Amino acid sequence: MNSLLNRRALLQHTAWLAASTALWTPAHAASTPADTADTPLPARARLAAAWRSHGDTPACGKDCDQVGVLELDWQAREVRIVASLPVAGRAHGLMTEPDGGFVAVATRPGLWLLRCDAQGQLQARHNLADETPLRTLGGHVIASADGQWLYTTETDRQDGSGWIGVRDRRTFQRVAAWPTHGLDPHQLTLDASGALLVLNGGLPRSADGRAIRLEAMDPSLVRLDTRTGERLGQWRLDDPRLSLRHLAWSLPPEPAQAPLLGIALQTQHEYPTERRDAPVLALWDGERLRLANRQPAAAGYGGDIAPGPGGGFIVSGQRVGEGLLWHPDAPDRWTPIARLTEPCALASWPDRGGVLLAGQRGVGLWHPVHPPAMLPWPVSMLPDNHWVALA
Asked: What is the biggest distance separating any 2 CA atoms in the chain, rounded to whole angstroms?
C-alpha cells in the first residue's frame, strides 16, 4: 500500500511538473486558442467583477468605478460587459450567492454593500453611514456556514480597532459585532469546523484609509468562534512588516489530506532592497503559521491568491508582471505560469487547478492540461484585485 501511494504521489508530481512548463505570454496566448485542447473548455465563463473604466462612459462619465458581470467567450475570442453598475468609490471583494447572483463590498474606508442578481441587476444596497457606531468596511465579505448571516471586516473610525460585522444576509443590517483583536482586518474565511479565520493586515490607518505609523504594525491571523465571537487562536509571523492580505484554501489531490491555508503577503518595509526580496506567501496548517520555504522575486507584493493544481497555490505577482505557481511537492521552486502587465485578480476556472488572471490589457487563462489563451478587454478598463466565477 505504501509503495502504491508513493507511486501515485510521484505520478501526480510528474504531471504537475510537466503542466507547469506551459508558461504563456500575450503573444503566446494569441497563437494558442483554447479550443485546441483535447478536452474542450466550456465555451463561455461569466464573472462578477469590479473595475475602473478609463475615458468617458455613458453610464457615469470619466474614470468611473463600476461593478458588474463580464462574459468571456472563447469561441468568439472576446469579452462582453453583460451589465455594469456605477458605484461610489472602489469595490473590492465579491461573494457569489446560491441563486447565481453576487454581493460586492467597498474597499477601505468603504461605506456600502450591494447585491446583484445573476444578470448583474441591482437588487439591494446598504449604506453604513446610517449605522451606529460608524465603522468602515475593509473590503471583504463571506456568508456563514448556514447561509443566514454575512461577516464583514470593519474598522472603527475612532480608534482604528478591527471588527467583524455580523449582518442579516437579506437586509445587510448589522446584528452583532466581534473584535478581531488587531488592526486593519481584511479577508476572511471559514475553516472545516465552521470557525471564522480573519487576516488582520496590521496597518494603523488614518480615517481616510492611509497607512500610518508603520513601526507599529501588528499583522496576525485570528480564529473566532462563530457562536460567540470568542478568540480561539491567534498567529503571527516573525516579521511585522509583512501585511497579511488575501487567502485561499488549497485543493489537495487526496480527499483524506487536510488543506493548507495560503496567505498572500504585501511588504511594508522601508528600504527598496527589503521590499524587493520580501516574501509573498505564508502557509497555515491549523497549528502553525510560517513562510513558504523559498520565495519568488515578486517585489514583496502578492496581489491575489488562488488554489493551484495538486494542492498548490497561484499568486499574482502584480509588480513583476507574473502569475506564479507554488506546489507542496516542490516547496523550494516557484514556476512562472504567465507573464502579463499588472496581473492581479484570480478566479479558479473551470475545475481544479485552472485559473483566470485579470491584467491591465485583458484576461488570461492558464490550466494544467489545456493550452493557454488570452482575451482583450472590450474597452479601456482596470480590474480591481478580485473577481469570482458565476455559476
From this structure: 65
User: Among residues 64, 141, 138, which one has the least CA distance to residue 102?
Assistant: 141
Q: What angle do CA 161, 288, 332 make, to 5 degrees?
A: 115
**Helix and strand counts by DSSP (H, E) for the chain:** 3, 28
φ, ψ at 109 (rounded to 5°): -85, 90
CA 273, 240, 298, 333 torsion: positive or negative? positive
Residues facing residue 76 across a β-bridge? none
Query: Are 47 and 365 contacting, i.e. CB atoms less than 8 angstroms apart?
Result: no
Nearest-angstrom CA–CA distance, 96 and 365: 20
Distance CA 274, CA 282 (A): 17
Q: Three-class SS of residue 323?
A: strand
- Alpha-carbon Rg for the chain in angstroms: 20
pLDDT at 29: 43
d(CA 279, CA 338): 19
CB 37 within 8 A of CB 371: yes
Cell of 307: 488554489
What is this structure's pTM?
Answer: 0.90
Find, among 190, 164, 196, 162, the residue nearest to 178 by Cα. 164
Q: Write out the three cell numbers for 55.
A: 475615458
Q: Which amino acid is at 368?
A: P
| CA dist 46 → 37, 71, 252, 352, 377 (Å) | 20, 4, 26, 17, 14
Domains of the chain: 2-389 (2.130.10.10)
pLDDT in tens, 119-175: 999 999 999 999 999 999 999 999 999 999 999 999 998 889 999 999 999 999 999
Phi and psi torsions of 276, nearest 5°: -60, -40
> Three-class SS of residue 118?
coil
| Cα–Cα distance measured from residue 106 to residue 121, given in angstroms and rounded to the nearest whole number | 17
Cα 238 to the chain's mean position, in Å?
Answer: 24
Distance CA 341, CA 49 (A): 18
Query: Quick one: which of 149, 139, 128 has its CA closest to 196?
Result: 149
Q: Which neighbouring-strand residues pair with 367? A: 370
